[in-house]
Sequence to fold (564 residues):
Amino acid sequence: MERCLLIHEVLRSICENLRNPDLLSVALSTKALLGPALNSLWREIYTFKPLVSCLPPEEEIWIVEETPTFLGPPFSDTMKILVRDWNFVGDNGSKRLTALRSLQYPRRAITPADLHRYTSFYAHRIRSFQPCILSSVFPSVEALEALQLATDGKRGALAPLAQSFTWPSLTEFQMVLRDELIIGMSPYMSLFLGEVIDTLVLEVPSLETPVHAGAIELALQRCPRLKNLAINLSINPDVDKRFVERCFSSKAWECLELVEVPFVSATLMRCFAQLPSLKTLHFLHNQGSIDLPHCTPEEMVQRLKTTPFGEDFLVLEELIVYGTTVGGFIGIIQCIPPGTNVIKILQCYCSDGGDISLTKTQQAIDTIVMHCNSRMLTRLEFQDGHRVLEVEDLVEVDLDQELDISSLLVFTKLQELSLNLVAPIRLSPDDIEQIIMSFREIAKLELYRGIYPTFRPPPQVDHTHLIALLQGQTSLKALAMPLDMSKANGKKARGAPFALTELSVGDSPIYSPSKVVAFLKANCPGVKALRYARGSESGASIFSRRWEVVEYKWKDFMDSSRRL
Fold:
């Protein structure tokens, strides 16, 4: 055992799997574990308290102003991590937290000697600094200025080897600090931004906070090795959208590999297209704010004859879009050079509203086929706006108005295909054969909204085609499509049991829950998640009630299997 403690990788692995209270004990147990334990303790810092705790005693160096602070939801991801074990007390079960905050003012000048313990033993261990409002200690602007003087204004002096920094959110910090204090902190954040910073998370500044915005822009200019830049949306309605455009147009950003922005414009897309190392591009929380022109695939073909693409998005592998419309998604895809790109992951989750007609959705599918590289795409997810259909919505159904996804069969490298759309997709037995032949590596296949009733005609695909699909796609683990289960039985098929673990059937026809359960036991005993249409506000259909019986019986089967 003592020989193992001489191996650095073993010590690091031990410490990385311990909680903070245990790490403190481990650090004090033996000299060999002191360094690795301290590294783990200080790797990710979420508050200013560790820094303040390393300085001389409070009565010697600080004047403390204590104020009670009320906190309530919504909480950021960082805050959720810090409070996940806390008990909240509130009216009517609401989550709220009241705490006493200490605002530190310098009693005297801070000297390099005061900082010696911190800078010599702890500062270089920090790899990520994400200050959040749950800290019980906050430095005042005067305290930060005193720290800057004590470090001779050196960039990154308080976290020289930090690789990731989350800029304090004005939106969140307004809960605990006065506005002038929050804005005044920004120019001093450079104390935590050293030469090796490669990840920066920040919030779009308001038009009313030019000093805050200027501090961020200066910091960005001083981070030449930045690889990951995430710019989140503020709840302030007067956000400075041109700030985001300036961030990307004012510098070459040769190392930038991941970008997250809360909106997109033609100017931004031109900037992103020229980033030589950009591999991951996320548009998050757009709220429909995508102002990009789009056209039909036929119009794009004519445009390419006169205006071909340059060398754009050369290494982009992942493109994810949240909160846009189908038209906005088409506009983004049409900025990608057709056929020559290396995108492997394409995901779009549209917000409610906008045009989700069959014509517009078909145009989106055709645009994906035209612009994505059939030899590279491995994951495609497309979800349009949410809409629950009632019986009255579909008194008359035109069976010719169905989405044609046959063009997607060219993507033979697909491992995940998820189309969660309002437009109906009605598969035929021939379609199943084509899927088996084309998608040899498919592990997730979702061609159905699944959880809402569609009131469509019975599917043409039944349990025998499901068996054929599972026999042809042995790696298939998640499946969502309408199935006619009216003739399912408990006969075990060749090759069973299959690897399927998730099955979503929507409002598929079913007449005998017991026979469907027998079918699953014989052929898909590994299914852990069974989903179906729960019914609409007007009431559950008889099919939904039968699938509910299947669900209860299947849960009993899984419980009994676990006990064996």
About this structure: The two ends are 38 Å apart (CA to CA). Residues 78-94 have pLDDT under 50 and may be disordered.
